[in-house]
Amino acid sequence: MTDRRNGMSLREAIRRNARAQQQQQNMDVDVFAPRGNNGASASAGPLAMARAYRVARQSGQLNISSRGLTAFPKEILRLFELVEEDEKSWECVPLVKVDLSYNEIASLPDEIQQLPELTSFKMRHNSLHTLPSGFFELSALTALDLSNNQLAGALPDAFGKLVALRDLGLERNKISSLPEAICQLPYLEVLRVDENALESLPNNFASETQHVDAKLEEIDMRIKSLEAQLDDFAISQAKSHNSIPSISDEIGALTTLTSLKLCQNKLVELPEALFELTALTYLDLSHNQLQGSLSERLGNLVNLKELSLGTNRIQQLPESLGQLSNLEVLRLEENKMEKLPQSIGNLRRLNTLVAHTNSLATLPSAFSSLRCLQMLDLKKNFLEALADQLATLQSLKFLDLRQNKLTGFPQLPERATLDQVFLGFNALSLIDETSILRAKDSITVLELRDNKLSTLPVNMGSPYCFETTLIHLNLSKNHLTSLPSAIGRLAALQLQLLRIRKNQLTSAAVEEFLGTPPGDAVICSSLKELDLRNNLLAEMPTSISALPKLETLLLSFNKLETLDGFLWHKLSKVSVISVSDNKLRSLGQIYLVPMLASLSFENNNLTSVPSMQERRNAQCHVTSWKRR
After folding, report:
1. Which residues contact 273 (CB under 8 A, 6 or more apart)?
2. pLDDT over threshold 50, residue 8
3. Which burial class, exposed, middle or buried, applies to 88 when counting CB atoms under 10 A from its CB (0-12, 13-18, 19+)?
4. 628: how many CB neighbours lie within 10 A of its CB?
5. DSSP SS3 for 553
6. What is the pLDDT of residues 54-90, one digit of tens each?
7. Which of 106, 136, 310, 501, CA to CA, is 20 to 30 A from 621?
8. Of the candidates 416, 402, 406, which has an alpha carbon nearest to the alpha carbon of residue 373?
């Protein structure tokens, strides 16, 4: 190495003047030069590259990613020949790390083997189709990232020469098979091969790795048929988004496996050996074709903290589920379950349960024992009534019971931190005032749309009910003919969004709950969106003009005939107004809304619209006039 560097120093002296002249010619056009026809950006100009090479000689690390390169720079192989006059060749260090990511390089030269001390080589997001034989002479490599390229077919056995590899990234290529030699890499810790065209793993994937002392920390694969043998690795994470129809029983040999992700495959059943992986803390089997009942041996996985079984065809969970005492997250969405096991009540650490889109008709009585549950998503089931299963869930923050068959209002937990409640698309005809008051101190979002409500509790909007918490209230698509006047007071507190579309509210009803100026309406100081579409409004409710923070006003599909006389100029923050599909003959002075940007008034009986001069005089800046 020393002789080589001394030789380069002599060559550098001979070529110094020529190189200096070339650099001077490029001085003014290098960094800010436009992208050329060959795809090379300014950052790949001579000066920029020279700077990168200089840093590499000093540090042993070369980063020329995102340079628009279309070919491997041969200068990398002779960095010492490019030593500049103010550099000392004997102070240069050999390359140990190279990053060529995010370029358009299609091939590597066989001479790359001239970098024998290279330990890290990153070339993700390029256009590599193959690897030269010389590449596999880089036996010092510990980290290799070739993800997001065009590598196709079977990888060569020569990978077995890279005996120092610890991290191998091959994801998002077109690889159809891995060489058995990969199984013989003694220090491999991370293997990523997801999003390829793999049909199997090497047959010796397990048997040839029993001697491995290092711990394989990650396997990231998306393959079509996992029938290979997996063995003595201590895997902390294994990912898969594949089309796997089966798993070998020998997976049970992975006794130190802690994380296994086999989602988006075609698994129809699980080997019993899977339930011998008692070190698992994370198991994702979602988006497969699992059906029927899961094995009672599921209870063996006592260290599980997260279990994902969503988007399968599972009909029943075993009672042994209750043995998973460390479970914190359970995802069961999009299956065919008609009930949950009674033992679910033993999951005292469970904080997230997602079981939407099933066929659940009831919840087990033991459900009330889930005192740590914070998120509960049971939408799209067949629940008709909930007794008191929710009343004791004092940690609950998120509750989604939409699209069930509820006819009775559920008992909400008392003194909970319940933040968001979604009860839309049910058959509720009455709100239990006692229940709603139990969660009065915390709810910010309450959705009751698409039910059969004809009235609301008189005290629902009282200050002592929701105090300063409720921000979003959706009562759309019910049978409401009136709202309690106390609802208007909510807007004085925190209410920002009030949606009451598709009800039977008249103008008088709106005046009643908002108040009539100069009375109670002045306290509606927080409301930003008011949706009154598809109601029975025949005239503009004057109380709307007393909503100082209103930004969006939706009044389409009513029976409005005129907007005359309304104090539009008071709506100082409104930017969106829709009055389409009414019976309007005139828009009145709607152009006086100072911040109006979008106005929709199609499908009316208008004979004229505000003139351009009127709009200019009012300084109206409408950018979207929808008129038909």
Report:
1. 248, 249, 250, 251, 252, 253
2. no
3. exposed
4. 9
5. strand
6. 999 999 999 999 999 999 999 999 998 888 888 888 8
7. 501
8. 416
Please give the Cα distance from 340 to 198 (Å, whole number): 37
Q: What is the average per-residue pLDDT within 2-20?
A: 39
Pairing of strands 598-600, 624-626: parallel
For CA atoms 557, 560, 563, 568, give the dihedral sign.
negative
Q: pTM of the predicted model, to two decimals?
A: 0.75
Burial 368-384 (b: 16+ CB within 10 A, else e): bbbebbbbbbbbbbebe
Q: Is 325 or 225 the better-scoring residue by pLDDT? A: 325
Q: Are 447 and 402 a contacting pair, CB within 8 Å?
A: yes
Q: How confident is the model at residue 206 (pLDDT cuts 50, 70, 90)?
A: very low
Backbone angles phi, psi at 272, to 5 degrees: -60, -30
Chain position carrying tokens 């809304």: 593
Residue 545, both tokens: 């003009």
- For residue 520, how many other CB atoms are within 10 A of its CB? 20
Say what the pLDDT of residue 207 is.
44
pLDDT at 16 over 60: no
How many helices (H) and strands (E) are present in the chain, helices listed first? 7, 28
Using CA atoms, how far residue 504 sits from 218, 407, 479, in Å, is 59, 21, 6
Q: Which tokens belong to 483?
A: 């709202």
Question: HSE of 27 in the Cβ direction (CA atoms, 13 Å)?
Answer: 7
528, pLDDT greater than 80: yes
DSSP class per residue in 180-230:
GGGGG-TT--EEEEEEEEE----TTTTGGGTT--S---EEEEEES---S--
Q: What is the pLDDT of residue 614?
A: 64
Structure tokens belonging to residue 108: 């590597």
Q: In degrees to the nearest 10, what's the CA dihedral of 449, 454, 457, 461?
A: 50
